[in-house]
Structures are given as C-alpha cells and as structure tokens.
Design a protein that fits this description.
The protein is of the alpha+beta class. It has helices at residues 3-10, 101-111, 116-126; strands at 15-20, 26-33, 48-63, 66-79, 85-87. It has a domain at 3-36 and 54-73 and 93-126. It is built from 3 helices and 5 strands. Strands 1, 2, 3, 4 and 5 form a 5-stranded mixed β-sheet that branches. Strand 4 and strand 5 (85-87) form a beta hairpin. Bound molecules: zinc ion. Zinc ion (ZN) is lined by residues 40, 42-43, 45, 79, 81-82, 84.
Length: 130
C-alpha cells in the first residue's frame, strides 16, 4: 500500500505506510509519522524531546467487507518551551477517538440512508468488532 493510497482511500496525510497484514478477516495497516514534523500539541513549538511511543489503533473505512485498522506508534514528547509532556496530535483522528475522520464521515453518510441498528450490524456485526 502506498502513501498515496493512504491519502486517497483513508484521508491520511503526513504519514508513511509501513506494512499491511491480513489477520482473521481484518486488515491492519501500520503507518509511521514523519518525526521531523513533530510539534508540541499545546504551543506548536518544534523544540521537543522524544519520550517514547505508544501504539494506538484506529478503525477506518473498510476494504471490500474487511475491517481496516490503522496502527500508529504515537510519539510522546516533552516540550522544551512550555514543559508539557503529551502525545503529539494525530492528524487523521480527533482527540481521544479510536476511529479516523474518514470512518466517522462514512458512518454519518450511511446513517442518513439506513437505521443506526443497520449501520451497527454492518460494521460491528458483519465486519468484526471494534
Ligand atoms: Zn509546548
């Protein structure tokens, strides 16, 4: 999967494709951020120290009928300007969410055409949990 496909299929910009797997009917896609673009999420300074990473998983739009997950090792930083220690912002998902904005848009579009119960069965029943 190319970085271009990340953008065109999932709306993910500024990250690199690392690997794609096929596991139990799901498609985990591992991506990496561009460490040179890291900024403090509070004051936007680029003067940050790395403080380790935490892998986070985000549900995104399916490929065919298979659930797709974006796996990203999100960088923790310490800002040398404002002293905050936080994870950097994930550009394709809102804070504290476990799904991408593209997936959210898909659910909203479908919910205008189907019942919430039908959308729920489609993504959490037939496409696996998550
Ligand atoms: Zn800062």
């Amino acid at each position: 999967m190319s970085t271009s496909l990340l953008y065109n299929a999932f709306g993910i910009i500024g990250y690199f494709h690392h690997s794609t797997s096929f596991i139990a009917g799901t498609i985990p896609v591992a991506i990496q951020d561009d460490r040179w673009r890291l900024r403090c999420p509070v004051c936007r300074s680029r003067e940050v120290r790395n403080r380790g990473r935490q892998v986070r998983r985000f549900r995104t739009v399916p490929i065919s009928r298979k659930a797709v997950y974006i796996d990203l090792a999100v960088q923790w930083i310490e800002c040398t300007k404002c002293q905050v220690v936080r994870q950097v912002k994930v550009q394709f998902s809102d804070e504290h969410k476990r799904y991408t904005r593209a997936f959210e848009r898909l659910l909203l579009d479908l919910s205008r055409q189907m019942t919430i119960q039908a959308v729920d069965r489609l993504f959490w029943g037939e496409l696996g949990s998550g």
